Amino acid sequence: MKPLHFMQILLLSVSISGYAQIMNKEVKAKIETTEFENMLSVTGTAENVTDVHKSMRYKLTVIKKNKRSKNLSNNSQDGRFTLAPNEKKILSRTQVNLSKEDETILLLLLYDEDDKIIGKDRIVVGEDDKADQPADGLELTGIVSDETKTKFGKEFYDYFYGKYQEKKLNARKIVKVEEELSFGRTTRIRVVIDNDLINEFVSRPDEDFLVYMAEESIARLIKYFQDVEKQKQYITQY
Asked: Which UniProt keywords apply (predicted)?
């Protein structure tokens, strides 16, 4: 992981406190839902509120968590799109089975040409306690974005996210698990937060290896959070 310089740390401190406020300024992300017969119809939309043509990509993710067993399932749709000035467009549609035993998180993220998130919307269905939710519904905490492409990448994501929850981590920055093609038939997996590389490795079709790398990545992520917190305290004192 690259060392954080003073200015990077200062900007990180500012961005953590104001992260929710800078979203949806140029392009608005919106999730629209309709419920019928224990099914939830989900539509992800984007609206360009500027006078400039936009070329972007989206990711609509459905995360289901069983309230009793805490088991997770994660499904995503993604793609690229363009928006004319002041245009609103439907990006994706999906349907979700509803159950009283499940908490369902719907997350729509919009990325600009530099792959930075500039639009987002989040809806939670079947949540037991909404007392900690922000009034505007925009603040994202504890989100781990699945950017994997293969079966083994998906398995690593599941192990990583399970340990993320087990450790009760709740980052106010989105943690991304990315995967890209490497040599031969292998892929390279990265864990990234706020453009800082937490861990990177070449995947293997080995469950024990993927579990080990998930544990290693979580340990490095915790160390990252501790280092950032120490630097924030240093800046506050001086």
From this structure: Signal
